Amino acid sequence: MLDYVGLEGDLDEEERLIRDTARRFVEEEVRDDIGQHWIDGTFPTDLVSEMGDLGFYAPNLEGYGSPNVSETAYGLLMQELEACDSGLRSMASVQGALVMYPIHAFGSEEQKERWLPDLGAGDAVGCFGLTEPEHGSNPSAMETRAEKDGDEYVLNGSKTWITNSPIADVAVVWAKDRSTDGDPVRGFLVETDRDGVTTNEIDEKLSLRASVTGEVSLQDARVPEDAVLPGVEGMKGPLSCLTQARYGIAWGAVGAARDCFETARQYATDREQFGGPIGRFQLQQQKLAEMATQITTAQLLAYRLAELKERGDLRPQHVSMAKRNNVRMAREQAPVAREMLGGNGIVADHSPMRHMANLETVYTYEGTHDIHTLILGEDLTGIAAFE
Ligand SMILES: Cc1cc2nc3c(=O)[nH]c(=O)nc-3n(C[C@H](O)[C@H](O)[C@H](O)COP(=O)(O)OP(=O)(O)OC[C@H]3O[C@@H](n4cnc5c(N)ncnc54)[C@H](O)[C@@H]3O)c2cc1C
């Protein structure tokens, strides 16, 4: 596997173990079937609990069954999962960074004990409802609201593009709390089988097909008052979750690009035209050289992010730079790998075109490329250009 400047030589024993476990899981359990799942538009749900048994959901958290592994180990896990498919990594990212993380960071003791062990083991599935039909890049304008009624909250609104919602047991729903001055955004843990909650699936996606995406519609959905996450108010709640998930994406995108590169490198050695392997042509070597260089520089950024996160110096803007750069890199390199495979590059037996289509989602969700540009622009100039 491409590790051109030997970054993996510095991994400790636990980090190697996690990388190898994820790599083996992908090769033995998923890779053969992922193309068919992608064509069928299904997620391999039979793997949800196995991924839990292997510790793939938020292993970087501490307690409630999570082992608190290093941020590098967590990043490597995301990289290996996305080397298979962005949908597989999305499942683990949502469950860990967008559902378990907010419960761990902002939940009550009862909420942590109720949900974290089950989510960590893959005995329950979670989803994260922030985006609405009319509010994507600007979620602070959300319309979903919660009104207090006795010892319950009544939720109304509509969330869309929600990864895992049709298979989720619980949704972290972000809504404006009308019973508190200023209508602050608050997080609610909403079981999806409650009256008034529906989670219709979004069909016919042309990207991230091996991932289930849906809505979370709330019509007078009642939850007990202790369903609110007590530890946070305002947009810093959902945004801090996004920082965790974007960190994983910055690593994951490198995995998708690496898989494209390895597929193209192998093909260039095997495929013969004009009396020998196509890898002997300078044109093909130039493509591989550029791909390897771009992947290696993205890897360096991901490893640096892990160091900063480990010592508490990671800023959301650092994560924006890495998400923006590494996903763009993967999105630009996947078509190069595809073209190196000629006609074979357009069939599902080979991964580059599947990665190419998936990366359109990765480029768009968790803050579009444009939005991360604006975040960096504001950080660099002190001038916000969002409106
Ligand atoms: C497969 C998939 C899974 C997803 N999973 C989840 C999930 O689990 N939970 C969740 O809450 N959301 C999820 N999302 C939603 C995702 O986060 C949003 O699609 C994303 O934030 C963009 O919002 P939008 O689609 O409404 O686009 P819009 O915000 O309408 O943007 C449209 C275009 O305008 C650009 N734009 C917007 N504002 C500006 C500006 N100020 N300056 C310049 N350009 C701008 C954007 O960059 C984009 O190119 C998912 C999306 C997809 C596709």
Automatic annotation (TrEMBL):
Q: Which segments constitute the Acyl-CoA dehydrogenase/oxidase C-terminal domain? A: 234-379
* Highest taxon, organism lineage: Archaea
* Top EC class for this record: oxidoreductase
Q: Which GO terms describe its biological process?
A: fatty acid beta-oxidation using acyl-CoA dehydrogenase; fatty-acyl-CoA biosynthetic process
Residue ranges annotated for the Acyl-CoA oxidase/dehydrogenase middle domain, each copy included: 127-220
Where's the Acyl-CoA dehydrogenase/oxidase N-terminal domain?
Answer: 13-122
Q: What is its EC number?
A: 1.3.8.6
Pfam families this protein is in? Acyl-CoA_dh_1, Acyl-CoA_dh_M, Acyl-CoA_dh_N
Known pathway: Amino-acid metabolism; tryptophan metabolism; Amino-acid metabolism; lysine degradation
Q: Cofactors per UniProt?
A: FAD
List the catalytic activities from the record: glutaryl-CoA + oxidized [electron-transfer flavoprotein] + 2 H(+) = (2E)-butenoyl-CoA + reduced [electron-transfer flavoprotein] + CO2
**Sample GO molecular function, one term:** glutaryl-CoA dehydrogenase activity
**InterPro entries found in the cross-reference section:** Acyl-CoA_DH_CS, Acyl-CoA_Oxase/DH_mid-dom, Acyl-CoA_Oxase/DH_mid-dom_sf, AcylCo_DH-like_C, AcylCo_DH/oxidase_C, AcylCoA_DH/ox_N, AcylCoA_DH/ox_N_sf, AcylCoA_DH/oxidase_NM_dom_sf
- Write the record's keywords in alphabetical order, separated by commas: FAD, Flavoprotein, Oxidoreductase, Transit peptide
Give the protein family.
Belongs to the acyl-CoA dehydrogenase family.
Tell me the protein's name.
glutaryl-CoA dehydrogenase (ETF)
Q: What is the lineage of its organism?
A: Archaea, Methanobacteriati, Methanobacteriota, Stenosarchaea group, Halobacteria
